[in-house]
Amino acid sequence: MSFISKGLIEFEEYAIDRARWQLSWRGEPLPLNRKTFDLLLYLVEHSDRVIGKDELLRKLWPESFVEESNLTQHIFLLRKALSRHESGGKIIETIPGRGYRFTATVKAVETEQRPDADRMVISASESIARITFEEEVETSEPVPRELATDQPLLPPPSRKSRSYWIAGSAVAAAVLCVAGWFGWQRWLDRTGGAPVNVVLAATDGTTGDPVLDTALVEALRIDLAQSPFVSLVPGATVRATLTEMMHKPDDPVTAELAREICERTNSQAVIHGAIARDGTHFLLTEEVSNCVDGKALAGVTHEAVNAEDLPHSIDELAEGLRQKLGESRRSISRFSTPLFHVNTASLDALKAFSQGVQQMRAGRLSKAIPLFKAAIAADPQFASAYYNMAAAYVAAGNDTEAQAALEKAYSLRETAAKPSQFAIVGLYSEQVTGDLYEGLRNAENWAALYPNSAASWSGLSYAQRNLGHHAEALEGSKRTVELLPHSSGALLNLALDQMQTGDLKAARATCDRAIGDHLDGDRIRGRYLEVAHLLHDQALVQEQIAWSQAHPDSLFLLQDEASYAISEGRFSEAHKLMAQWNALKHQQGLSDADDEDSKQQALDLMQSGDIEEGKKVFKRTPVDPKEGSELVGLIYAGDSAAAQSALRTMQAKFPNGTMWNLYWGPLVEATIAMQEHRPKDAAAILEKAKPLEAISLAIPRLRGEAYLAAGQSDLAEKNFRAVIAHPELDLASPAVPLSWLDLGRALAAEGNRAAAIDAYQHFLTLWAHADPDAVYLKQAKQEFASLQKGTPAK
User: Please, what sign has the CA dihedral across residues 440, 443, 447, 448?
Assistant: First the structure.
């Protein structure tokens, strides 16, 4: 069948005027680029059969190499142009696994034609090697027949002229090659505009396996997350927005709901997919629509010949979506790592992995870990499964299993998507090597490459905070909250960084915001209690305590209350609160084995003078040598040798460990020196810790004690004042009140009686409700009385 050599071609009230290269509907011209028009003509001419994709690629782009996605785009453009008819049927039908078929009934209408109108120009080239792309410029004017002559237009050139002509041609060819190379580079880098935020809607249809349906959406999410250009609205934001819309946070995100979420989150588009099944074949479709008016912007389809091919089809769909949304080809090529390699048992691995991620998001670590193991059993090269399993083990406190999984994930990291690579390196730097500076470099690169990723900014903020870079950490946490405005974790970190940079007003506002966003809870109230103490606002403190009493299961707030009681010398009250806390932990199924929080409270008790009770609490649970504070606790508990041995073991295990070399190492060694009455050695040892001094108050506090014991009261005063000036660095710590006491002692040694009296009064005010028999309270009162009488304290 051939209508191409005839006049008008009509179908479904459309008309093709081959003579003028024009498609129209009811007389209205419909613009089509030349390649899309060629595609239409070829489909019409062969409407009696199914046309394979390979045939279309050969005919439309002869002697050229193009990607299949080019053809898919022109099919999409053609379908969009042919969407005016009212019959409801598809004019261009996709036949899974075979190609396309033109389904409309075609009628030819004879008209007067130009002599050259019967020639269909699909594409032609005289060049030996050429790559043609969809953006190629094509002329709509036919080549004049007069130029197709066998006679030379000019006399043959002389031999000398021919040499010049050859040389000139070589130069011109070189210039064209250079220009072509630069043009090729510009084409690779060309984008469709600014980066976009999109909402991922639920998928219509089913594979017949609900677990697989969910897994495919998770796979698409992972694939799209590789893009530095396309950013998915995070699940936490989607759930919070659903709540604002008076829906349940776990309601399915239909296309209609996704559009409203898109508008509410100031995003640009919605991605809505569909699955069609025909026996063992699957047709996957993803459509991008404008969230303002719902109009379709682009569409991508892919056929899977069987279920095992589905994960690879998702990879192809994701790449197509990214291109349609405007991402450059270079970016797509650089950041498109398949979720699985071709020869892996990817379907079972994907299903188990997806279920594991769901369980982990819900906090059910014990259920998540076996699922990640199942994913690894199905695909032993699954880097992301190893990483997620390691993260689950870290959260569960199983360091041995976490390290084994991390080492495997790290060895396979190059096979993972780029965001997963960053996540793997970040956790590996923290847990395996302990190199926090490497972790910081990794986080900086992550945030630079993925500036619209909340995970990248959260990771950067965490890395900065670990090194005591509080101002930088604040910038990262601000950006995280911009991207995750309804995340309780993001708001908690923001409030912490605001406190640690001294902006208590902003920290209080962040806590109020979290409560106003219906994120009120134990952790938020615990942060609020810290803010209230720093503000010295007793009414605000009592407000948080009243909330705790009204919520008897508030584990973290109860822990904070006990810590503040210790820091203020209220030991009897602290013991009761700690007993309640331990009982509540057991009630909630939490063991206190390897509990670093219990150990920290025990250390605080010993440092505050409640030594015997502190030792008792400290010895109740085994020491974890990976926790540096527990090695300090060993020294206060009277076992310096064990602390020294554990320190050497950890430094050998983590030769590049930032904390072991620059923080815990000096702190442990200096604490031992103080116990052995070598204060000058202790002060010298602590110089090594200066790069990380801003992490907490432990270093300047111990240095102040060393200088005071060494009789260098002026240097002791400087360090105690540094501690007092930054109470936000050690929340609920006894370091600040005890530094007021030691400052008074340093000033008294300097002969500055008035300033010393003022310092003692500060300490006595902070310990106004301390137990009457508290050691440091009794000492302070005696020394203060001597100062008032004008006699030197003993």
Answer: positive
Residue 65 sits in a domain of what CATH number?
A: 1.10.10.10
Taking each continuous run of H as one helix and of E as one strand, the counts in the chain are 35, 13
Query: Would you say residue 464 lies in a domain?
Result: no
What pLDDT, on the 0 to 100 scale, is given for residue 241?
Answer: 86
pLDDT band of residue 115 (cuts 50, 70, 90) is very low
Report which of 416, 391, 390 is spatially closest to residue 404, judged by C-alpha positions: 390
CA distance 245 to 243: 5
Instruction: Give the tokens for residue 148.
Output: 């197709």
Which residues form the domain of 71? 8-109
Residue 238: inside a domain: yes
- Token pair 């200066």: residue: 690
How far does CA 62 lie from the centroid of its chain? 44
* pTM of full prediction above 0.90: no
- Claim to verify: residue 96 and residue 209 sit in the same structural domain: no
- Examine the domain organization and report whether 200 and 328 are in the same domain: yes
Residue 100 lies in a domain: yes
Q: Are 323 and 329 in contact (CB under 8 A)?
A: yes
What does the alpha-carbon distance between residue 258 and residue 140 come to, in Å, rounded to a whole number? Answer: 42
Q: How far is CA 568 from the centre of its chain?
A: 40
Domain boundary among 334, 349, 367: 334
Beta bridge partners of 108: 9
Q: Is 156 left (phi over 0), alpha (psi -120 to 50) or beta?
A: beta
Tally Cβ neighbours within 10 Å of residue 792. Answer: 12
* Residue that terminates a domain, selected from 109, 144, 175: 109
Query: Using CA atoms, how far apart are residues 378 and 347, in angstroms rounded to an integer?
Result: 8
- Is pLDDT at 442 greater than 90 in this prediction? yes
In whole angstroms, give the CA distance from residue 786 to residue 776: 15
Instruction: State which amino acid sits at residue 429.
Output: S
Chain-centroid distance of CA 51 in Å reads 44
Tally of domains in the chain: 3
- The count of residues in the chain is 794
pLDDT at residue 63 tops 50: yes
Is 310 among the domain residues? yes
User: Do 312 and 204 fall into the same domain?
Assistant: yes
The answer to whether the CB of 648 falls within 8 A of the CB of 635 is no
Classified as helix, coil or strand, 175 is helix
What's the CATH code of the domain at 715?
Answer: 1.25.40.10
